[in-house]
Structure formats: C-alpha cells, structure tokens
Amino acid sequence: MIRFILSDLRRLWAGSLVVVLLVALATALGVSVVLQERALRLGSARAADKFDLVIGASGSETQLVLSSVFLQPSPLPLMPGEVLGKLAADPRVDWAAPIGFGDSFSGYPIVGTTTMLAQNLSGGLAEGKIFAREGEAVIGAAVKLSLGGEIKPMHGSLEEGGETHTELIYHIAGRLRPTGTAWDRAILVPIQAVWHIHGMEAEEHAGDGEHEHEAASGTDSAEHGHEHEHEKAGADHDGHEHHGEADPDAALDESWTAGAPGLPAILVKPKTIADAYKLRQDYRSDNTVAVFPGEVLTNLYATLGDAKQILVAVASGAQALVAASLVLVTVIHIGQRRRQIGALRAFGAPRSAIFGIVWLEFFFLVAVGIALGFALGYAAALTLSGMFSETSGITMPVGFVREDAALAAVLLAFATILAALPAVLAYRQSPAQALRA
Q1: Which of 171, 339, 347, 422 is most buried by a 10 A CB count?
Q2: Which residue, among 199, 206, 169, has the nearest Cα to 83 in the 3D structure?
Q3: Which residue has the higher pLDDT, 219 or 263?
C-alpha cells in the first residue's frame, strides 16, 4: 500500500505540491503570530526586569516607562530636581540614577546618567572604563563605535534636521556588556555634562514644578535647557534656547542637592521589596509618579492580547479558506481518479483498502504541509524579531513551548477529519460506477 501511495504521489506531484504549499502557508501565518507575540512579551518583560522602580513627573505612566526603560522618543514633563536629592539621602534606596535624553549620534540615543547606573546596568564593562570626566562616554554593547572614538551630540536626530552641539565632544572610554535591552544601543554620558551643554544651572530649576520640553526627535526631556514650557496659573510661556559651556576634563560631581535641575525620570534601586512598595507609595503624589515597569507592561500585554486575538482570528479565517479549497481540490481529484479506483475494486481490492489508500495519501500531504508551516512560521518570527532587535536593542527570544504541541495536535486532528472526506467518497463508489465514468 505504501509503495502504491508513493508511486501515486510521484505521478501527481504538481497537485500534491499545491496542497502542501496551501497548508504550509496557512499554518505558517498562525504560528508566526503566536511566536512573535510571545517573543515580544518575553523580550519586553526581560528588559523591564533591569529596572525596579521608575520615578517621574505626574503624567502618563506608560509613556514614562517607554521613554526611560525602552528609550522610545517622546517628550516627558520634568519633575523638580529636589526629588533626586531626597532619593539620594533616603536610607531605603540602594542607589538612584537620574537620566536625561534628547540628543543623539549616528542614530544612537545619548542618555545622560551617572557612574552608578553605568556600573550596575550590565554588571560591568566588556572593555574600557567608566566615564570619569565630563568629556567621556560609555557605549552599549550594540553600538557600532570604537573605544577612543569621538561623539558629537546632536539635538534631536539627523532625519528631522537636528542641530549638532559644538560645546562638547565626547570620547568613548568603555563599552558595556550586553543587557538584551534598548540600552544596548544607547550612549551613556555624565548627566552633569548634559546639564552644562544646555546651560542648565541648578538655581534656575530648583523648586520648579513641571516643565515640558519637546525636541526635534520627539524626545528631549534632558534638553529642556534648549526649549521648555512653563505652566503657571494657566499662562503659557515661550521656550528659550540656552547654550552652556562644558569642560571635557572636569571631574564628575555626583553629590546631589535639592537644587539639581529638573529631570524627566529617575531610576531607583530599592534595598528591599518592602522598600520598593513604600517608595512607590511615597512618590505617587500630585507632582510625581512612581511605577513598577512590570505592572505597566501588564496593561500593555492586555492590549497586545486583544491584538493577538484579532490576528489569530484572521489566521484562522485564512486556514478555513484553505480547508475549503482543499475540500474542493480533493473532490475534483477523486472525480479524476474514478477509473483508477474502479480498476482497483475490479481486481478485488476491498473498500477498506481503497479508504486507507486515499486517506493516507491525503493525510500525508496535509501533515507535511503542517510541519513545513511550523518551520516557515518559526523562520518568519525569527526574521521579524531580528529586525526589531536590530532597531530597538531588545532581545526577542523566539521558540516553541509545550502549548505549541497542543496547536500541532489540533491541526493534525483537523487533518485526520479532512483526509477522511475524499476517502469516504472513494469508499462509496462501486466498481461498475467507477469504470463507467
């Protein structure tokens, strides 16, 4: 029987190939949706695990996490600089690192921060040393620059007509180890250098309530010295550009006071889990908001879940259309093989043998299509994840899990039922009817 089936498939190879490809493409669509959605959830969750608590000015919690953790371009309101001094002196805080962003270089975001964050972000350096002067920088693992290279910060981005700063040129002092986060594509510089470049003096910002700064790239919370809006008593004030002076050889001073300039976000490492919850409660006020990145991502996952259901429904619809097409193809195929079936019956082949031959042949084609579809779906998800990781820096783990075996089992069960249709049609034909066709 097996030799007969293989011979039949070789003779009808064109039609068999069409059936396999139809099933493979329909299966690949559904598999790629499932794998890509899971990779996005796992990748973003692992990236957020690097940061325990994020504190910023009152506003969108989601945007705060997207901008500070995933470095997505967007303007953020600024909180008073005195918050940084309070956190630095809080016994519940292991370390608190301010961040400021808005500048870029060769498509990489420049983030102003501290040596503490640079040392703890990736667990050490892959090469070089931590910046120790205002004119030094540390690059992420995915930044394609070399140690000792020059970095000329640009306000905004080149695509949007950004302005290159001439006040300071950074020199690359070290490279971080890979983190699997968006920070692998970041250039870290001393935040005091960012303040000095943009003419941000402590006394100008001490006690400010809320500032909002928009850069040419859409993310310029750290560059609020260039352009910012003050909102006081409902009156709008125009932003003013400020250019300061920076000394590339100046030593770093990371002793924070109440007069520090305004900040878009502060990354906090609490000493204990209990301290983390207490800090979050203390800094959820009218002026500031404190969030756990994981909690914010949970809400995003809910949205992704809705989108996934829509995509799965689309994939299921495509699979249903393919199934209907296969039914039509098999009915036509059985009609074309009536004489062959009649001859087999005339030579004494029982109905069960005819049923088995047709069922095995069709089930084999559908099963091969399903296996090929899983392979194509995996390859598609791997390609899409690689493209996303290249642009975002976030590692997207693509892989199968145990629940995917259930999906394969459901598809094979469906194939079993689908293959029975042409087998039943062949089973019911009498030899005389088949030979008269």
Answers
A1: 422
A2: 206
A3: 263
